Amino acid sequence: MTSATAAGVPPTPAAPKSRKSVTGTRKTVVALFLLPALVLLGALVVYPIGYSVVRSFYDRSGAFTGFDNYESLFTDDGIRTALKNNVIWVVFAPTVATALGLVFAVLTERVSWGTAFKLVVFMPMAISMLAAGIIFRLVYDQDPEKGVANAVWVGVHDTFAESSAFPKAHPGRESPLVAEKGGAFITRATVHTGGTVTLPLVGVAPDQMPGDAKRAVAPQADPGRITGTTWQDFTRGEGVGTLGAPDASELGYPGMKIEAVKDGKVVESVKAGADGTFSLSEKADGAQLRLPAGNFKEPYNGLDWLGPSLVTPSIIGAYIWMWAGFAMVLIAAGLAGIPRDLLEAARVDGATEWQVFRKITVPLLAPVLAVVVVTLMINVLKIFDLVFIIAPGSAQDDANVLALELYRKGFSEGQPGIASAISVFLLLLVIPVMWFNIRRLRREVRR
């Protein structure tokens, strides 16, 4: 080749290098295959983000307003409430869901029915947010006859504090009873030994009368005692029945409490029988008879789960019900990869199960726990469905979150500029979390 060059013969040019990717595929072919995905990415992601950024600088009429829409993020009461609720969501929802997933994964690792339990816990993930919202809207219903949460709560409450059977009862016409401060009723006149007293009431629907109520019986005089009857003084049909006296179809008030009051002090108390009759001793001579307010208090209907104070924790509870299974499955997968030799060595050295869990299991699961927490944080930053469906209209302002406020500003209130500013703000909130997750994944790959 040296002689050929010296003789003036030009060297043979080298063959052009083929432009191929690292996998051996031509770059033009790679570009053609990626083009549809890039077009979709640009149309569905890049363009909406860019348009939202531009639109956030304009008001509803299209006039340029600069950063006024972004200023509204920190001055508008609705947006500030949404931001506060988002902070609550980010702090509590991922933490509690991950903690429950960790507990479930660890506790079910050694039991034979652990797989079935995991299946049941993970099953809510198969339900859409819309369906879960409808389910929990019913669960949190205020009526114990409909809402499971209040049915359980009322059952527990009534076990320790009996509800009144006569919440609507009150004196009728020509009654010897008058209303007293606090919701009680008291007789106008005093009672004396050997006499009888009638305490008629009305206002309880026939189908609401206690099941053990019997036909009311008129009181019979007793020389050494004070006798009386309290009953439902109402008979269906116009002009039917005798006012102020028990009739054949009228029922007594079983369990009605009667107090004998002298000089403001209760000297004796008694409860009416199934037929409404009661009897007091000579200690009640010269006293007024009082039906205390406890006879007429409204029955306990549970908690207002979807009220202003509990609506956000209640919705977070619904979210945890859905996503604890997701956390459990990922953590269980990480748990399966932990070397058993380390755990057994720690137990042989005398470590308790709690020490093994705290000093070995949790540190080794730290990468998996970080993945779960970060994933759920990104998820709750854009939570919308559950809040929109579960929270009633009266409590939606209190349960508001940024994604819901974006919807309300953009579609209900016709302020697309502020809605775009909220969307950009949400994007800025998500980016640091995603950046942290990407860095962590790269560190894991290097290891």
Description:
The chain is α+β, with helices and mostly antiparallel strands and 447 residues long. The protein folds into 2 domains: 68-151 and 305-446, MetI-like (MetI-like fold, Orthogonal Bundle); 177-295, no CATH class. The protein has helices at 2-6, 27-55, 68-72, 77-107, 114-122, 129-139, 148-160, 311-336, 340-348, 353-364, 366-381, 385-390, 396-399, 402-412, 416-446; strands spanning 177-179, 185-187, 196-201, 226-232, 257-262, 265-271, 277-280, 288-291. The strands form 2 sheets. The protein has a 5-stranded antiparallel beta sheet, with no helix packed on it. Helix 4 (77-107) runs antiparallel to helix 11 (366-381), helix 9 (340-348) packs antiparallel against helix 10 (353-364) and helix 14 (402-412) packs antiparallel against helix 15. It starts with a helix and ends with a helix.
